[in-house]
Specification:
alpha+beta, Archaeosine Trna-guanine Transglycosylase, Chain: A, domain 4, 3-stranded antiparallel β-sheet, 14% helix, elongated
């Protein structure tokens, strides 16, 4: 078995995974420096994505006073994907923990209790109860005041209900995606242009301050991560 790592998805993509419509996710390849660019490099070590200093006159090359030229060897960083083939991923999503005492006090949650409650320890207490997921709730019930929803980034592995196995990882430009790729990303193809829907969905996940570098129009390099559903590994 490969590494066991977390991966974040929003509610729309969680539903697409559960429905079997999403088997691929793209993640932007992040720059480490400002004055660099991404390129595919092929040499005796194979083909791989690198981050290399931009070729700018006066910084990487130029002319000397005597008319001769100079050129500096540009350093590069080999980019490593966040996941590798064989890795097992547990999906982090918006979640909450409902102690059994809440149900005993008459709180009405539109979900069924587990037959066997789980024991969950947070920073303040240890309780028996159930993990619940915002995606499961009907939209009109998602903002109930008595439910304290936690962001996906804080979801513990213990609460994960969806497990994925990475089957392949590659790199390409974002706009290299085709119609099939959009469908495999879980894009709703019943609502207008599939590329428009995918591009809007992509941009909605990018911080506004970084949209010029990682947004759809920027056409950044992305990791293409393919996966399949799997069972929770023993001992996890």
């Amino acid at each position: 078995m490969g590494r066991v790592l977390p991966i974040l998805f929003n509610e729309e993509m969680v539903r697409a995974i559960l429905d079997g419509r999403k088997t691929v996710t793209r993640r932007a390849v992040k720059y480490k420096y400002r004055n660099t660019e991404m390129k595919m490099r092929t040499d005796k070590y194979g083909t791989r994505l690198i981050e290399i200093q931009e070729d700018i006159e006066g910084e990487t090359h130029g002319k000397n006073p005597d008319g001769s030229t100079w050129h500096k060897l540009r350093p590069y960083i080999e980019k490593e994907p966040p996941y590798r083939r064989g890795d097992i991923l547990y999906v982090r999503e918006t979640w909450a923990f409902i102690p059994c005492i809440d149900c005993n006090m008459g709180y009405d949650y539109p979900v069924e209790c587990h037959e066997e409650p789980v024991t969950y320890e947070d920073r303040y207490s240890i309780s028996e109860g159930c993990f619940i997921y915002r995606e499961v709730f009907p939209e009109q019930d998602r903002d109930r005041k008595q439910i304290c929803w936690n962001p996906s980034i804080h979801m513990p592995k213990q609460a994960a209900r969806i497990w994925l196995k990475v089957t392949d990882v590659g790199a390409e430009r974002l706009k290299d995606i085709d119609t099939l790729g959009c469908q495999q990303e879980g894009t709703d193809i019943s609502r207008g242009s599939v590329f428009k829907r995918f591009s809007e969905s992509w941009d909605s996940t990018i911080q506004k301050a970084k949209i010029d570098r990682y947004g759809w129009r920027a056409n950044p390099w992305v990791w293409v991560i393919r996966f399949e559903r799997c069972r929770k590994p023993e001992g996890q």
